Amino acid sequence: MRRIAILGATGSVGQQALDLVARNPGRWQVEALTANGNAQALADAARACGAKFAAVGDPAAYGALKEALAGSGIEAAAGPEAICEAARRPSDIVLTAIVGAAGLKPTLAAVERGATIAIANKETLVCAGPVVQAAARASGAVLLPVDSEHNAIFQCFDHDQPGSVERIILTCSGGPFRTWTRTEMGQASVADACRHPVWSMGAKISVDSATLMNKGLELIEAHHLFPVGIDRLDVVVHPQSVVHSMVEYVDGSVLAQLGTPDMRIPIAFAMAWPERIATPATRLDLCAIGRLEFEAPDFERFPCLKLAWDAMRAEGSAPCILNAANEVAVAAFIAGKVGFLDIDTIVAETLATVASGPVGCLDEVLEIDLAARAAAGVQVELRTR
Ligand SMILES: NC(=O)C1=CN([C@@H]2O[C@H](COP(=O)(O)OP(=O)(O)OC[C@H]3O[C@@H](n4cnc5c(N)ncnc54)[C@H](OP(=O)(O)O)[C@@H]3O)[C@@H](O)[C@H]2O)C=CC1
Ligand SMILES: CC(=O)[C@@H](O)[C@H](O)COP(=O)(O)O
Ligand SMILES: [Mn+2]
């Protein structure tokens, strides 16, 4: 049995991972589960899978967790350090499914002890890709992408001949506003933005999909996961989300991974790797789907994609500033403080006001992340309705 820790166990990815654990008795022993404030759901999940340790990031949720775990024998803990402790406990695999840069320190804790990391938490790679990869090289940790596009690329990528890859093509659904004008997007509600046409996901990534920032973050994620130059990364809009991404080789061959849009496919791939295991995902029926469409992304209606592309090219702290500003802007939008179109403006203004430069270590990343959040907070206040 392989021991697994699931960080972000109460979220969309975490719950689907636990579904796979429940469907495969004897395959994984759950060492630790974490959440932020959702103590009851965490305790229920920990009891159901027989976890040994459960931690909430929010110290205020400790009492509720302790009470919900009473008599279970499951150890309870709270606070950001407890989430890192969950990552450090002796598991073979750590699934990082925390949303946002809050996942950075726990992911690094798992990387530093040389664990196999099934990484869903893309923001960690966006804000600290070089730091995480350097730590992985030093410890021997293996990073297995869970994000559907990167998992597809991982499956198609010739890891023995990276030089034979000419282009990586990330597919993008286009989000709920693919056909909307900017004027229409100006009136978009949080519910509109979270109504993803294909995937059911947490609120933050759903809004990112609506602005196309998700694809921008994924470009940067791909840059850190796959050893090809920045200029070999491309994006194509594919509304059906059946082709999860593609790898083009120097001979003109293009390899793609296809499947129904069900995150349990990439989650199972990463959690069982190098084995493949059965999943309950609906099988792909191309005749029933009938058409697969592709179109170029529109940078004018979706400026976040261009902001991310530019930040990736700038390197250094620019992606960290982009990510922090985006987290602040999306949280303000979800809280009803700013409008949908304020998100790209807040990110652009933050990138324009916070000086970027090289970043060499975790402390520098955390410092720039804080500075960018403060600057983005000012931008939010300027626009608060
Ligand atoms: N959902 C999807 O299909 C996909 C998601 N991803 C990526 O996976 C990650 C998770 O996404 P998703 O599952 O949708 O997110 P959700 O919002 O559904 O879940 C987030 C999880 O993180 C926990 N969490 C939030 N903040 C903190 C914090 N400060 N400290 C510790 N834990 C915290 C939440 O706990 P609590 O419930 O207590 O708040 C919850 O368990 C993101 O990086 C996303 O981009 C990538 C591809 C697909
Ligand atoms: C399931 C997954 O990996 C998400 O990141 C998804 O790709 C979002 O879709 P778009 O960002 O392409 O709309
Ligand atoms: Mn994705």
Can you tell me about this structure?
Helices cover 48% and strands 15% of the residues. It is globular, with a radius of gyration of 20 Å. The model has no long low-confidence stretch (mean pLDDT 98). The chain starts with a strand and ends with a helix. The longest helix has 22 residues, at 362-383. Helix 6 (122-139) runs antiparallel to helix 15 and helix 15 (318-334) crosses helix 17 (362-383). It contains 17 helices and eleven strands. A seven-stranded parallel sheet has the order 4-3-2-1-5-6-7, with helices on both faces. The chain has helices at 12-23, 39-49, 62-69, 80-88, 104-112, 122-139, 148-156, 182-186, 190-194, 203-211, 213-225, 264-272, 286-289, 303-314, 318-334, 342-353, 362-383, and strands at 2-7, 28-35, 53-56, 75-78, 93-96, 116-119, 142-145, 165-172, 233-237, 243-249, 254-258. The protein is an alpha/beta fold and 385 residues long. Bound molecules: NADPH dihydro-nicotinamide-adenine-dinucleotide phosphate (NDP), 1-deoxy-D-xylulose-5-phosphate and manganese (II) ion.
Sketch the major β-sheet: 7 strands, parallel
Cα radius of gyration in angstroms: 20 Å
Strand order of the largest sheet: 4-3-2-1-5-6-7
Q: Bin the strand percentage.
A: 15-25%
Mean pLDDT: 98
Runs in which pLDDT lies below 50 for 5 or more consecutive residues are none
- How many strand units? 11
Number of helices: 17
The geometry reads as globular
How much helix, percentage-wise, in residues? 40-55%
**CA(first)-CA(last) distance:** 53 Å
Q: Encode the helix/strand succession as letters.
A: EHEHEHEHEHEHEHEHHHHEEEHHHHHH
> Are any ligands bound, and if so which?
NADPH dihydro-nicotinamide-adenine-dinucleotide phosphate, 1-deoxy-D-xylulose-5-phosphate, manganese (II) ion
Decide which structural class fits the backbone: alpha/beta
EC number: 1.1.1.267
Domain 1-deoxy-D-xylulose 5-phosphate reductoisomerase N-terminal: 4-129
Family: Belongs to the DXR family.
Catalytic activity: 2-C-methyl-D-erythritol 4-phosphate + NADP(+) = 1-deoxy-D-xylulose 5-phosphate + NADPH + H(+)
